[in-house]
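Board notes (copied after class):
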Amino acid sequence: MIAKRNVTQQVVDYFIKKIEEKSWKKGEKIPSENTLTKELSVSRSSVRAAIQQFVGVGVMESIHGKGTFLKEDDLSVMRLGSHHDIHYDFVDMNKLLEFRLILETDSCYFATLNATAKNIERLKFYLDKMKESIGTPHKFVHYDMLFHEEIISATQNPLLESSFKNVINQKIDRLEEFNETFGYKDGIYYHTLLLKAIEAKDATRAKRIMRSHLQKAIDDVYYEKNVADEENEIF
């Protein structure tokens, strides 16, 4: 049985067509997310995920309060021969997030109790680098994971460290896909709260924030999967 194509990929195809036929011109603003959602009869999250793919390779640029602009019309960076037909694996992503929820929630509690000034300094550095990397999924995820690794490191438990690093190294491509699909806002928001709780040595609050952070990601994947299933029945 041939799997139906991911809805986000169909939006990407639509964008490519508009760029190739010069309907969208370099330097000009593309239609808003609301307009595209209505025009294509897809969810806003699918439109946003498609835009993030173009932003990530420098073809588009999103400017807060102004919209999204076509920055380049050279689509060779989209690597149409290989990357173009990536299928988002919701099941695999959900299993990865469940693993992280189980491992990182309690780890965050002990990390907060044991965190040194050096740990906190590195967490601040990684959070700043995440903010600087908005719009570049590969770099953003790199510093995102370094932030989480630093929390695990602060537990001073090598078994937790090795377990976390082993799984993340195997699944880094999934995390980059997640970032392209769901964006940057939640990562910055929850990491800022985590840093404040760890600085305050409030282990209970830090644990609660970490649980909320990862549960929100699981909920997002669950919602997106259901939306994608419904849209694939229509397309």
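Comment from the instructor: The chain has a mean pLDDT of 84. Residues 203-234 form the longest helix (32 residues).
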